[in-house]
Amino acid sequence: MDRALAPLGLTSAQYALLASLYGLARAGARPSQRELADFAGLEPMSVSKLARGLERAGLLARAASSADPRAVELTLTPDGVDTVTTAVATVRELHGRLLAPLGGTRGARHAEFAATLKTLLDHVTAVNNTRPAPETTPTTAAPGRRR
């Protein structure tokens, strides 16, 4: 994906942020960096760093939130909208090429493959949620005792 997005000057992480912001903005939201991080599944510090870089590139604007002075709201600039719409088309085309052996994005084999992946991911999530928390071990040994 990074190679496909490179001509647009974007990385896949920047794309994830811009595409998420674009989707939220189309729904009428002006998300804070924290809300965008939660939505995109990115770490808040990563979003902050990415947003600063994208702001320097003229693709988004950061402003103090009127609702919470500690929060920073993000909005796409007109250049950001142009870039992200081109990037979305690029990523869709890439996905189409990658999924062509499965009959494309709308084929029966793709739907079956997606359902299988979802089942596997749901199973992993269920297993991870039922495991007991790992035991903690002391970081220092008691006096006179070796580890």
Description:
- This protein has 147 residues and is mainly α.
- It has a domain of 97 residues: Arc Repressor Mutant, subunit A (Orthogonal Bundle).
- 58% of the residues lie in helices and 7% in strands.
- It is built from 6 helices and 2 strands.
- A two-stranded antiparallel ribbon has the order 1-2.
- α2 packs across α5 and α3 crosses α4.
- The longest helix is centred in the last third of the chain and has 23 residues.
- The chain is globular, with a radius of gyration of 21 Å.
- It starts with a helix and ends in a 17-residue tail after the last helix.
- The relative contact order is 0.11.
- The model has no long low-confidence stretch (mean pLDDT 85).
Please tell me the CATH architecture of the domain at 2-98 by its name: Orthogonal Bundle
CATH topology of the domain at 2-98: Arc Repressor Mutant, subunit A
Total beta strand runs: 2
Low-confidence segments, given as residue ranges, are none
The whole-angstrom Rg is 21 Å
Distance between the termini: 47 Å
- Biggest β-sheet strands, sense, barrel: 2 strands, antiparallel
Give the helix proportion (percent range).
55-70%
Identify the CATH class of the domain at 2-98: Mainly Alpha
Helix and strand pattern:
HHHHEEHH
Overall form:
globular
